[in-house]
Amino acid sequence: MPTRSVDLFMLCMIYLSLTFSAKLTTTSAMPGGSSGTTDNAATGTTITDNLTDLEMASETNTTTPAPSAPSDLSVQTTSTTANLTWIVPDGDVTGYFIYYGLVSDDELVKVNEVPSPSTSYKVDCLVSNSAYKFAVSSQFADVESERSDVIKANTTLTKPTEIDVQIKSLSNVEIQWTPTDIGGGAMKVENYIIFWSSIFGKENTSVDNTYCSVYTCTFYITADWQPNTEYEVNVAPESLTSVLGDVSDAVYGTTDFGPPSNVTVASSTSSTMNIIWNSPDIGGGARVIEYYQIALDPVDEDGQKSFSTSDDTTQIEISNLSPNTQYTSTVSASVVIDDKVGAGAPSEKAFGWTVPGSPDNVNIEYRKVNTTEVEVKFDEPQNGAMRYESRFVAAHGVEKRFSSINSPIEAFNLKPGETYDVYVRANNSAGYGLDSESQKITMVPLPVVDLKVENVTDNFVSISWNISQDDFKFDSQVVQYTFGNNSKLDVIDNNTFSHKIENLTSGAEYLIEVFTVSNNVRSEPRVVIEVTELLGVLGLRAESQTTASIEVTWEAPPARLNFDNYSITYDPSNTDFTAIIVPAPANSTNITGLNPGTLYKVSITCIGIVESDTMVKYLPTSPCPVEQLEASATSSNSVNVMWEEPAQGGFYGFEVYAVNGSNLIQNITIDTNTTMTTELDDLTPGTKYTVCSEVVFYGVSSRPVCQEDTPTNPAPVTNLLVPPVAEENVVDISWSKPLIGSIDYYAVSFENSKGDIEENTTSKLSYSFNAEYGEKYNVRVLSVFASLNSTEEPATTVISPDSVKELKISQNKNSPSTTLDLAWIKPSGNGDEIQIEYSNSRSSETETANFDDSGSTISIEPGYNYTANVKVISNNLQSETQSVQVNSKPNQPQYVVIVGVNNLILSWEFPNGNYEGFIATCEGQRFYVDKTEKSQTCTGLNPNSQYTVDVNSWITDINGAEETSLVKETSHATGSASPAPANSSVELSSDGKQTPNAITFLLPEDTFTDKNGPVEYYAVYITLADNTDKTTSGPDLTRRDSCQNLGGETKECVSLWYDVRELDTNSRRKRSFDDPVPNPPISFIIGNGSKSISPWNESYINYKLQPNTGYRVSVAAKTSNDEMTATNWSAVISTNLLNTSVAVLVGIIVIVIVVICLVIIGVCICMKRRRKSSDSTSEEEAQYVDVLPMEPRTILLSDFVRSFEKMTPRELMEEYLTLTKVGDEKSRKIADKSCNKNKNRFSDKLPYDETRVQLHPLLGVTGSNYINASHIYGLSRNREYIASQTPLSQTINDFWRMIWEQEVTLIVMLGPPVDKGEMVSEQHWPEQNVPMNMDFLTLQLTTEKVQNSFARRQFKLEKSGKERIIVQFHYHFSLSDDFDETEIPVLMDFIALVRLEVKRKSGNGPLVVHCRNGCGETGTFIALDQISQHIQNKSLSSVLEIVRQLRQDRTCMVESYKQYLLLYKSVKHVSDNPYDIVVNDNRDENEGQAVYQNEPISEYDV
């Protein structure tokens, strides 16, 4: 081949290789469509230069010009993508390259080629909330243009996730989502925008991030949503600069139907109820109401009933109900979706009654006074009634009603003679019921009055009468007359009031009775007895009567007969008679020796040759007067008159009247002989009357019996003026005299609220009295006449309370930030309470104190100026307000100190309450820090030096001065720096005590100092002498090689570590930075075979050295800082030449010394274990290089048990009583708040504020962060346990919220649910496979295994799609005072099983232990668990200190002496029955059951 051809061939090959190399330099595709990191522009230039060289060498020369760069690059970003667009440059373009990267990156990532004509590209898989930069270049053929201008853009915030919509009502929709992960970007989430839309439009609202916790955001939409409508909900984050992040995926929710309205019980019977309602608003949804559900619930009974309509009708009739029962009814609309019933919102409750049944067996009986009163008796219906009502309906429609709560019903004021239809009804509380069947009754009509004989002959008798009332009802009248056994009657209409009885037998005695008749019911009869005349004398009558005589007169017969005498007979009984002879012509005689009040039959016959017809008259004697007449005033215009019936004789009625002077004021006729009392009305008040009563018998009155000077009550005073409220304690009252009548004086009385009464009399019309402040008085003024009082004119006056005196306010000495003390002098008089209103610039609260208190303590917020207004309240009146001002001390921030070598960083949390800023102090330096800042750095400090620091908040007090929080200075040391350089003026030197295998050298005094912090360790480095490059410098401190291979691969190594932390420093002078303390001289032996431990817990052996070999040594010092400083290498120190005989002798000596040392060490160890304190060691011991590790302070288990067995019960009791006051000083204010009291099972078992478990608060629910549970200090970490009371029914949700929030995976429940027949605790978990829903949590029991002494349950707890497995161990026996000691082995097995489960569980959640009160049994279990850990960890176990620490965390832990004794006896049980737990990691189906193996344990295991 010609030479030129070869050259061209070589040039072409070079060109191809360069081109291929350029292709290879571009990196492979990067994530998200981006490509490698090589700058293609530079590569392109190189290729072009090579081509130019080739063109110069080649005969065929071609040049491709570079295209122009694209322009107008723009970008639109989301959280993970960027959409780039640009304008095509001038000229030809075959494609584009995309460049992008973080703003902080130096180089941009190059994306694979984008073919033309596309002018856009999407970069994905970007990091959200990050700043990026972008550029684009164009390409033509293989030539790339320059890049466009770089443009910067931020990716947005990521979209929220796990959106959940809970529609609780149309105006309460709960939205939950997981907060946006902001990554590492600069943008923060300022707000979230919630979007919701429906067919009715779109709406949104902005929610700030205060509604978010670390894991969950929760917000409640209170806007009114349309019923039966599907809503779409999205959530997007928004930054502080109003940049909207990615919108979440949509979630959907459909609102329920609205509630039906106007639910009404339209009608009801005793067993049915007809309910109607209006249809609800169905909104804009497609669902229609398919039927309604009705819930009917008896108010006073159990047993709710449910009914449903067959379609969307808006009424229902419900049957088979109980009579006379009140029911509540609610109606909800229902729809069936996917074979599931969806119910709308229930309506408001409607109340309705069923009607009681009707009464049976109605019977009407007349009362004693039978003209106007009856009793209605009946059988009560089933379920009774609220009230029974009888209706009396007259024929003309007038109706009377009477009622009673049971049978019988008394009816009165009925119309005599009226016929009534009677109905009885049993009514419910609404007044509805059913009538019984009608019963008829006719009232007895009134009798006639004033019946008298108008005329009598020998064959007829004429009578007349009147009726007592013009309007009483009767149908007819009957006159019945009887002679012997012969009786006849005449019926007379109801308008005739006289009658002539004819065709009578002459001289016969007739019993004449007159009745009124109504509906065949007769009235009581009115009776006269009359005898028809015989022809004889005329006009026989009584001229006058006394109680023992009747003077009779007569007229001679019309035709004088020839007779000499009259024969007069008289008798009271118609059987025996007495006759007297009166000679003619006399026409009168006085019949004596008669009985009072007796009707006598008096007969007179003319006696001559023949007897005339006998004339007969019935004449009465005068009745005896009344006995024991008494009259007394009953009111100001009436007098009650009472008497006893006459001592003997008959009577038919009484006349009662009152006389004032000669005026008859009132007269009452009583037409019955059974009434012995009456009222005289219409009398004048304050007047004395003569009251009389006369007995009436057959129209004849007795002598009057009278009581003189009978007064009526006086009239009351008028115009009584009493001030309703009196500002001062002197009260003036006045009045006017009565309008009528007389008075003697006035009686005035004042009764206070205690029942104390002050009474006085006066003749004036006014009165003043001294009253007590704050008292209420009932004032009465009475008129008095004849020792009688008028009616009361009561009035009330209230005296304003007195104000407190010398009111003072101050900060509480113990709690000046949260408590203010008020003091005052008690006001005079009385009061209900003292009201304290205290306020700051943003809130106001009111508290009350007892009236007898002289001060009060109020809880306030820190850092506010407070105004306290104090006033006395009595009878709803207020005293004058007393005001004082003071500020509360601001709260001190809780701060931590971050220690640096030359600085201390004070970092704190914002305290609660008000503050204007912070003051940070560092050893006298004072820094004012803005209230928005949370840290201050104190710089320029010396290393490992003690400084006093403090952080305080401050405010401007009410006087304009600076008020700071309580000063609580703490002392902190800066960190240690690496040790100061070794003193170059001193050298390490041998002390001449070399052996063939060891050398000894001295670290001189003042080689190192503690200027930069105390030296904790010395490391002794060694190297061979022939390592000549080590003559001046020190060792390589980055290496810590062992000396095992010294001389081989290892050139220098660490022979031993010397721990100087345990050296006695008590006698050393105090270190300072400017005057550091030097090290003492220390002698080191290298090569003695001892062991040492490095600061990093590495084990080193001080290997023997080679005989007759030169070594160099260096000592490195280490402070708490991990850096070390070393001396230079020493001069050569050589081991001795090995002497065999000497070596043997030395070996023997060494063996003896080692044995002696071992004995001494053993004795020392025993002594250490029996010493009470091991805080210091002697200086000589501190100088040993091979210092043994410090043993933990322990006590032999056997010694522990022997000590316990020697204790008397009294000594053990006294030890237990030292715990009585532990924790008493701790605050329990949160647990004692009114909103939390119902969450505590016992009022004296409350958690301390400082250790209580705090729940995440629920929005708008006061006290929702409280639960009766406490964090308990453990052996492995501070919050190893939670001690809690077993949940109440109202705290079950709170308990499982605590389990979730505290990440608990293991629960121990102690004691049975029922103990001694008493329900100890409610079951707070569901039955197996029956989920229990609680707010945002769902709990399900998955497995349950029950054994004799305990049960093991496994639960699945879910929230927002996340779930956890919770294990519960339930110990069946109570650890109370009656615990059976024989159960100790079972108890200890149970505790070991729980501890095994704790070790197996992953996660950091605490162990929850709970019993009834969360103290006694819970404390006993935790104490035994800690004792068991002590035994397993071979450390000191102090029962007293364990219980003391428990009580520092929660009150009353290990509540009783017997529980305390149980702790000791359990330790003794472990001593007598030693065993250990062996874990079988190969679990079988009985997961959680520990496998035990009895093994003896060491005496040092306690």
UniProtKB/TrEMBL annotation:
It comes from the Eukaryota. Gene3D superfamilies: Immunoglobulins (2.60.40.10), Protein tyrosine phosphatase superfamily (3.90.190.10). It is a single-pass membrane protein. Residues 66-161, 259-357, 447-534, 536-631, 889-973 form the Fibronectin type-III domain. Residues 1-21 form the signal peptide. The chain crosses the membrane at residues 1142-1166. It is found in: Membrane. Residues 968-991 are annotated as: Disordered. Residues 972-991 have a biased composition (Polar residues). Residues 1388-1461 form the Tyrosine specific protein phosphatases domain. Pfam families: fn3, Y_phosphatase. Its main location: membrane. Residues 1212-1470 form the Tyrosine-protein phosphatase domain. Belongs to the protein-tyrosine phosphatase family. This is Protein-tyrosine-phosphatase. It comes from Clavelina lepadiformis (Light-bulb sea squirt).
